[in-house]
């Protein structure tokens, strides 16, 4: 009887030494795909007016335009003429302050100073197999910069490190950080003031309309009584 060839005997010996399939170690996972799904959205945003615009941003603009138009065209002209110039000036001042603060909060780039000096480049997604967080030990692996403070956060919407990060505002389509926090607060305060002014005008319009209706009814009653006495 002929013996098996040496190669076959070596394979049989290796197979006998292998552990069962359930105990075999799994192969190491392959490299994670870090390519962004949409390269057009992976560039660092410099300001809130940079496309693509957020839907809430457009809704806010339309709502502000509608309320302003209604106040100037309907509410103010319905009030007594003596109050109209002062009300028009007050409402115009509030809206101008809001517009200036809104533009400042949206256009001021709150990114880290070192990042602002660079041109906008495509930012890859974070490889979770290598890093648990975008910023580790003061280094951002995505922006490739050393951050200046512990409050610096990397925003996934804007693809940049924001100094003194507070939050990402969808109404501004911009991050709010230490550089644009003051105009953001002014933007919110002026929006609340404008809303309160429009609400006050609506209440005044209702009061004036109701008072005018009561006076008309009284005049009608007086006229009817005068005719009945004739």
Number of strands: 7
Instruction: Give the CA-based shape.
Output: rod-shaped
Poorly predicted runs of 5 or more residues? 19-40
User: How much of the polypeptide forms β-strand, as a percent range?
Assistant: 5-15%
Largest sheet: 3 strands, antiparallel
Strand order of the largest sheet: 1-2-3
Order of helices and strands: HHHHEEEEEEEH
Domains counted in the coordinates: how many?
Answer: 1
Structural class: mainly alpha
N-to-C span: 147 Å
- Please give the share of residues in helix: 40-55%
Mean pLDDT equals 79
Number of separate helices: 5
Integer-rounded radius of gyration: 34 Å
Quick summary:
This protein is mainly α and 230 residues long. The chain is built from 5 helices and 7 strands.
Structure description:
Its EC number is 2.3.1.225. One of its GO terms (cellular component) is membrane. Keywords: Acyltransferase, Membrane, Transferase, Transmembrane, Transmembrane helix. Belongs to the DHHC palmitoyltransferase family. It contains five helices and seven strands, in the order ααααβββββββα. With 230 residues, it is mostly helical. A three-stranded antiparallel β-sheet has the order 1-2-3, with no helix packed on it. Strands 4-5 form a two-stranded antiparallel sheet. Helix 2 (55-78) packs parallel to helix 5 and helix 3 packs antiparallel against helix 5 (181-229). The N and C termini lie far apart (147 Å).
Please give the structural blueprint.
Blueprint (H helix, E strand, L loop, with lengths): L5 H12 L37 H24 L5 H24 L5 H4 L18 E2 L2 E2 L4 E2 L6 E3 L4 E3 L4 E3 L4 E3 L4 H49 L1
Antiparallel strand pairs: 1-2, 2-3, 4-5, 6-7
């Amino acid at each position: 009887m002929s013996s098996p060839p040496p190669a076959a005997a070596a394979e049989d010996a290796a197979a006998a030494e292998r552990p069962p399939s359930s105990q075999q170690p799994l192969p190491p996972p392959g490299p994670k795909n870090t390519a962004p799904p949409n390269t057009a959205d992976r560039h660092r945003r410099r300001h809130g007016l940079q496309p693509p615009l957020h839907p809430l941003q457009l809704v806010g603009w339309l709502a502000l335009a509608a309320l302003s138009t209604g106040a100037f065209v309907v509410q103010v002209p319905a009030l007594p003429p003596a109050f109209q110039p002062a009300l028009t000036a007050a409402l115009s001042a509030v809206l101008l302050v809001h517009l200036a603060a809104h533009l400042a909060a949206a256009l001021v780039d709150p990114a880290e100073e070192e990042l602002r000096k660079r041109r906008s480049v495509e930012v890859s997604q974070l490889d979770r197999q290598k890093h648990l967080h975008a910023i580790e030990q003061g280094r951002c692996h995505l922006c490739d910069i050393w951050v200046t403070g512990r409050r610096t956060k990397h925003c996934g919407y804007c693809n940049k490190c924001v100094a003194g990060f507070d939050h990402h505002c969808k109404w501004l389509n911009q991050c709010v950080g230490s550089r644009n926090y003051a105009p953001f607060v002014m933007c919110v305060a002026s929006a609340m003031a404008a809303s309160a002014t429009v609400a006050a005008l609506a209440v005044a319009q209702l009061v004036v309309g109701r008072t005018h209706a009561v006076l008309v009814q009284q005049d009608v009653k007086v006229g009817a009584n005068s005719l009945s006495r004739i």
